[in-house]
Design goal:
With about 270 residues, the chain is of the alpha/beta class. The protein has a single domain, classed as Metal-dependent hydrolases (TIM Barrel), CATH 3.20.20.140. Helices cover about 35% and strands about 20% of the residues. The chain contains eight helices and nine strands. It has a seven-stranded parallel sheet with strand order 1-2-3-4-5-6-7. It has a two-stranded antiparallel sheet with strand order 8-9. It is globular, with a radius of gyration of 17 Å. The N and C termini lie close together (about 10 Å). The structure holds zinc ion (2 copies). The site of one zinc ion has 4 residues, from loops.
């Protein structure tokens, strides 16, 4: 790796319903890649915690606690990706309770009353529907920030992965700049990090979530805390796009990025 401190702080083992490899396999791959740090962040979709996610959360945490390969330089951290904690804060609290995570990602995969953006049908929608969806999405991101029990905001602009990437429907984000600025300001004021999720670089959308213009804007507004994650769901994708993400951060004016240990940022140079 050309960067000394490359880290992957968003990825999934098979403890996630859509992941394919074990915790130990993911850890070994991180070590093989020579990552400085590896944080696993299996899913917990909060609204389904009581009936579906509780055993997965327990299993992921137990495996992360036990299965740490010896040797190599990689530091291993325990994380979780909480989906929609704003919609079910009681379940979010239960998912975190009694488990000493290093890192919590707060994400929105679906807005209230809708399925995951991945499943929505964008083909025959009324004009203005997509902008309305996005407006609600930004509002719910603000709710996640107000909820506050997280370290980094996951993959901001996630809906574009499907709307623009998979369905080829262009979105004019300039209409949403005020809402996005509001999210950045709230993040900065609350001392939380913005994640740059590099999954988009290997998917149809072809760019990071969020991409350079937004990351630059966050920086302009005074943003200092950024994290990086590939959102890999298998060993082959671990670390993918991380160095491109580090290039992007440098281009946006950052000289350091963060890795979390016990919810405290360790700032590492982008060199
Ligand atoms: Zn996610
Ligand atoms: Zn994820």
């Amino acid at each position: 790796m050309k960067y000394r401190f490359a880290c992957d702080c968003h990825n999934h083992s098979r403890c996630s319903f859509d992941g394919s490899d074990s915790v130990l396999e993911m850890r070994r791959r991180a070590q093989e890649l020579g990552l400085w740090a590896h944080t696993l962040t299996d899913h917990c979709e909060c609204q389904n915690f009581p009936d579906r996610y509780r055993p997965r959360v327990e299993m992921a945490f137990a495996e992360m606690s036990l299965q740490v390969p010896q040797g190599g330089r990689t530091r291993f951290y325990k994380g979780i990706e909480l989906g929609q904690p704003n919609q079910d804060p009681d379940s979010a609290a239960l998912a975190l309770e009694g488990r000493d995570y290093d890192f919590v990602i707060g994400s929105i995969h679906n807005i209230r009353g809708y399925e995951d953006f991945f499943y929505l049908d964008y083909s025959q929608v009324e004009p203005g529907f997509i902008d309305a969806l996005l407006t609600t999405y930004w509002e719910e991101e603000r709710e996640v920030i107000a909820w506050g029990q997280f370290d980094a905001l996951g993959h901001l602009t996630y809906p574009l992965r499907y709307i623009e990437g998979d369905h080829g429907i262009p979105v004019d984000l300039s209409k949403h700049q005020e809402a996005i600025d509001g999210i950045f300001r709230a993040l900065i004021d609350s001392g939380k990090a913005l994640e740059v999720n590099t999954s988009g670089l290997r998917q149809k959308i072809g760019r990071a979530l969020p991409d350079l213009p937004l990351v630059r804007r966050y920086r302009e507004l005074g943003g200092e805390l950024v994290t990086l994650g590939s959102d890999a769901h298998c060993v082959e994708d671990l670390g993918k796009g991380i160095e491109a993400g580090m290039d992007l951060l440098r281009e946006a004016g950052f000289r350091r990025f963060a890795v979390y240990e016990q919810h405290k940022p360790i700032l590492l140079p982008l060199e």
